[in-house]
């Protein structure tokens, strides 16, 4: 096709037509031109051929479209569409070319990042690793130089640890006053990119002249953050054909800088761990004279490095943890003990690493054989100036189980004693209270704390009673030696009231010797009050029964006496009527009549008796008082 229409279309598409294929990005091939085949082959096999994006001109016929199958161009256009479509087709082809180039560069960046990451993970030679990073970055980006600069706490001095163009350059100190881009990165923690370095305002006149003299077009400085601080800078300088850094490249370099920072931190940690481990192993070796002792002690003994990894484990410890010394060596303590609460174990080891000795800390662990053990552990530093730790432990599983059972039994007995309504009081042989339950508190008015702190057992009894009870306990007559069968006593309430109680007591012996006494007291105040009420009722009932008997007897007597008295009084009255007053017999008959009347009055009173009332008679005798016993009826 003619050159002029192509130039015009390219200009409208924002492109430029070049003669050298090595300078081209797009290639327009006219497959309708006679003998075009060799020219197309030569183009595709040139140095730049694989990177070209093709736009094909074809005839609007089936065979014309078939001719492009092997070329696979980015787009096609026919002769009829050339005047109208070429510009648009060129723009689309250019966009596809840029997308393809961007994808290719991204793939290249990703491949390099993966390579660097693999090197970071595998390499233990930090110096060679850092030089390899800077060299590959310089090659990948086609820049003049890539440098890694480490900075300290301040911003006055830096150290070049690796440079892409000099494998031997390391530990070279530089004055950061001559590198304002590095100082700015350290200050802000953000990348600094100077696309026109020779005129950038961040540089001073001296730095600008130096940059211009070296032919440097652009500078990029990326931070290496380690534990929240910028501890290094990745510095790149573009010269020659490289004029600037793209946004994609800056993003890629930022990722590389972060990965490098992680690698540096890991390398530092690894180096410190290896150093500490070697020191700990040396320290453990210094304990070899004690190895024979450790081998024969019944407690487990382990020597740990500052990361709690096992350096040495004695046979007793290995047997206890169901492992061997060889299997345990190098493993973390948590791995071989599998503690239920690893926080307790690690706090113990951490305290020892700080130089603090800890003793007798219980840790529940699980062994590889599935056993659950309670180990009493003690940890101490091997020496005050280092962090290595010696750990001793013993199996207290059975002991702790017994302690738990005893504690549960004790708690049960305490609850049982406190729930008893009876008072239970125990005291030693000097009278000091050692047990005072809630029943005793209610009975005596003292709290358990007051009783144990201020009270003596003698004060709980009336004077002399405590001594008598102890004599009975030691004698054989009241239930046998050391025992007191049920007996009635009195306790002294805090208020001074005497509390009647039933009590039993015993002496507790330890090894045949008297240890303390214990008494159980039942409060009888309610019972005594009830007995008193019952006695009053019985007395009233007895009185009522006596009154009933007397009333019945009186009624019977009055009834039985009334008949003969009536006859006596009747016959006496008849005799008096037949006799005259001057007759000798009249006076005796009159006396008989009057006495019979008096007897009738007495019988009448007897018939009116309703209660039992007595009066004194001869001496201490008591006789029924008829007047009082029958007076309420009148």
Automatic annotation (TrEMBL):
Domain of life: Bacteria
GO terms for MF: phosphorelay sensor kinase activity
Pfam families: GAF_2, HisKA, PAS, PAS_4
Catalytic activity of the protein: ATP + protein L-histidine = ADP + protein N-phospho-L-histidine
E.C. designation(s): 2.7.13.3
GO biological process: regulation of DNA-templated transcription
Occurrences of domain PAS (ranges): 409-474
InterPro entries, A to Z: Biofilm_reg_signaling, GAF, GAF-like_dom_sf, HisK_dim/P_dom, HisK_dim/P_sf, PAS, PAS-like_dom_sf, PAS_4
EC class of the enzyme, as a word: transferase
Signal peptide extent: none
Name assigned to this protein: histidine kinase
């Amino acid at each position: 096709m003619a050159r002029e229409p192509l130039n015009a279309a390219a200009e409208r598409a924002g492109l430029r037509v070049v003669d050298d294929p090595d300078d081209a990005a797009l290639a327009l091939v006219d497959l309708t031109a006679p003998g075009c085949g060799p020219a197309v082959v030569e183009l595709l096999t040139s140095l730049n051929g694989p990177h070209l994006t093709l736009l094909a001109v074809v005839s609007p016929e089936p065979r014309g479209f078939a001719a492009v199958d092997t070329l696979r161009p980015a787009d096609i256009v026919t002769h009829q569409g050339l005047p109208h479509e070429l510009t648009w087709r060129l723009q689309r082809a250019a966009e596809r070319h840029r997308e393809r180039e961007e994808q290719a560069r991204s793939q290249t960046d990703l491949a390099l990042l993966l390579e660097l990451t693999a090197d970071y993970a595998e390499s233990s030679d930090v110096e060679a690793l850092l030089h390899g990073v800077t060299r590959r970055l310089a090659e990948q980006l086609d820049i003049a130089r890539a440098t890694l600069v480490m900075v300290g706490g301040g911003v006055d001095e830096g150290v070049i640890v690796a440079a892409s163009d000099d494998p031997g350059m390391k530990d070279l100190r530089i004055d950061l006053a001559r590198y304002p881009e590095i100082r700015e990165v350290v200050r802000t923690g953000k990348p600094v990119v100077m696309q026109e370095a020779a005129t950038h305002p961040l540089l001073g006149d001296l730095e600008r002249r130096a940059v211009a003299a070296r032919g440097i077009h652009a500078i990029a400085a990326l931070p290496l953050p380690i534990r929240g601080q910028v501890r290094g800078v990745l510095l790149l300088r573009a010269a020659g054909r490289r004029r600037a850094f793209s946004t994609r490249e800056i993003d890629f370099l930022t990722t590389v800088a972060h990965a490098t920072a992680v690698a540096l931190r890991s390398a530092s940690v690894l180096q410190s761990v290896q150093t500490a481990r070697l020191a700990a192993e040396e320290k453990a070796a210094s304990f070899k004279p004690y190895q024979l002792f450790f081998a024969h002690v019944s407690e487990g003994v382990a020597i740990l490095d500052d990361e709690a990894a096992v350096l040495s484990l004695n046979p007793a410890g290995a047997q206890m943890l169901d492992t061997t010394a060889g299997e345990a060596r190098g493993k973390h303590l948590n791995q071989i003990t599998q503690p239920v609460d690893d926080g307790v174990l690690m706090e113990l080891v951490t305290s020892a690493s700080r130089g603090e000795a800890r003793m007798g800390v219980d840790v529940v662990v699980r062994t590889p054989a599935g056993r659950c053990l309670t180990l009493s552990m003690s940890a101490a530093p091997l020496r005050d100036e280092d962090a290595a730790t010696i750990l001793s432990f013993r199996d207290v599983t059975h002991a702790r189980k017994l302690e738990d059972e005893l504690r549960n039994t004790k708690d049960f007995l305490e609850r049982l004693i406190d729930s008893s309504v009876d008072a239970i009081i125990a005291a030693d042989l000097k009278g000091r209270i050692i047990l005072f339950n809630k029943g005793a508190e209610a009975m005596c008015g003292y709290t358990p704390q007051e009783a144990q702190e201020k009270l003596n057992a003698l004060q709980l009894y009336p004077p002399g009673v405590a001594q008598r009870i102890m004599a009975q306990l030691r004698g054989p007559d009241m239930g046998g030696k050391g025992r007191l069968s049920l007996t009635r006593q009195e306790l002294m309430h805090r208020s001074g009231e005497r509390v009647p109680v039933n009590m039993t007591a015993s002496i507790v012996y330890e090894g045949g010797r008297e240890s303390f006494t214990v008494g159980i007291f039942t409060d009888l105040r309610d019972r005594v009050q009830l007995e008193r009420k019952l006695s009053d009722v019985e007395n009233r009932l007895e009185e009522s029964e006596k009154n009933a008997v007397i009333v019945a007897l009186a009624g019977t007597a009055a009834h039985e006496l009334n008949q003969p008295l009536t006859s006596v009084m009747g016959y006496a009255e008849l005799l008096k009527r037949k006799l005259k007053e001057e007759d000798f017999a009249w006076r005796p008959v009159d006396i008989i009549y009057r006495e019979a009347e008096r007897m009738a009055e007495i019988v009448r009173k007897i018939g009116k008796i309703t209660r039992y009332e007595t009066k004194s008679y001869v001496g201490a005798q008591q006789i029924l008082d008829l007047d009082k016993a029958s007076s309420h009826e009148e």
